[in-house]
Design goal:
The chain is built from eleven helices and nine strands. The protein is α/β, with parallel strands linked by helices and 284 residues long. It folds into two domains: 17-51, no CATH class; 54-277, 2-enoyl-CoA Hydratase, Chain A, domain 1. α5 (136-152) runs parallel beside α7 (176-189). The chain is globular, with a radius of gyration of 22 Å.
Length: 284
């Protein structure tokens, strides 16, 4: 045995300290490595490039409602897996996995609270729950949010984030498009505002229904908004589309939406809109 082996064997090596997996966050926009705590404290917005990350319902409610105080509304009970659908996995197993991952019952969660003193019912779609896809549960939750807004006599604000209809529910998912449209009409008949905030991404049947029917259309910076994907459109019309034509800024420049609002300014902007659209109701 060489002297190097004897010295190496005599030295007690310390155990390697493991670094938590969630200590760092890599920005999807610029690739900068950020401390997760600092990133979340900045409302999941990259301080370098201002890329707006995707967030769930809890984080969104904490950011929007005064002092993070709100009351979640119970999710409606619907028939699960009505078609007994199965692809590489059973649909029932996919729902169970999504619930374990997000801690939510489905992709759309409603809550009631105050935004700078103004009461509002807010619905948030979570892209982490099966891509925010629209099925029976999302349609029922949307109508429940509308009905709660009518009962509270306040606006309904929806934060959309979806890949479209939920394919595992077939035609039943597509039926949610006219269903939600009728719900919006009921809200308007009650004389209450319907405000849409489109986040990244808002696509498919959600864009083709309630995401584009707001009294005011807002989008977060850089949000992908559209019906079909860019490659599908280009292969259909056989033309090259402009760079970024499905991003929020392009849609604003071409009159598809009303404003693009940074996440840090969104709560104040929503309060301002509510004060305009409900002038008879002073903030508490």
């Amino acid at each position: 045995m060489s002297w190097l082996d004897r010295v190496r064997n005599a030295v007690p090596f310390l155990q390697k300290k493991e670094t938590p997996d969630n200590l760092w966050h890599k920005c999807a926009g610029c690739g900068t490595m950020l401390f997760t705590k600092e990133y979340e404290d900045n409302q999941s917005v990259c301080p370098k490039c201002q890329h707006h990350g995707r967030i769930g319902s809890d984080a969104r409610f904490d950011q929007i409602f005064d002092s993070g105080l709100y009351t979640p509304l119970p999710g409606p009970q619907v028939r699960e897996d009505p078609l007994k659908f199965r692809d590489s996995k059973r649909y029932a197993d996919r729902i169970k996995a999504a619930r374990t991952k997000t801690g939510e019952s489905d992709a759309l969660i409603n809550a009631v609270g105050r935004i700078e003193g103004y009461k509002a019912v807010v619905g948030v779609q979570d892209f982490a729950f099966m891509g925010g896809s629209m099925g029976l549960a999302v349609g029922a939750a949307f109508i429940a949010g509308i009905e709660a807004a009518i009962a509270e006599h306040c606006p309904y604000i929806i934060f959309t984030a979806a890949g479209g209809a939920r394919m595992q529910e077939g035609i039943l998912s597509l039926m949610q498009m006219p269903k939600t449209t009728v719900g919006i009409q009921k809200l308007r008949e009650a004389g209450l505002p319907y405000i849409v905030v489109m986040t990244d991404p808002t696509t498919g049947g959600v864009t083709a229904s309630y995401a584009m029917l707001g009294d005011v259309q807002i989008a977060e910076p850089g949000a992908l908004i559209g019906f079909a994907g860019q490659r599908v459109i280009e292969s259909t019309i056989r033309e090259k589309l402009p760079e970024g034509f499905q991003r929020a800024e392009y849609l604003l420049a071409h009159g598809m939406i009303d404003m693009v609002v940074h996440r840090h300014k969104l709560r104040a902007e929503l309060a301002r809109l509510i004060s305009y659209l409900c002038p008879g109701r002073a903030a508490a």
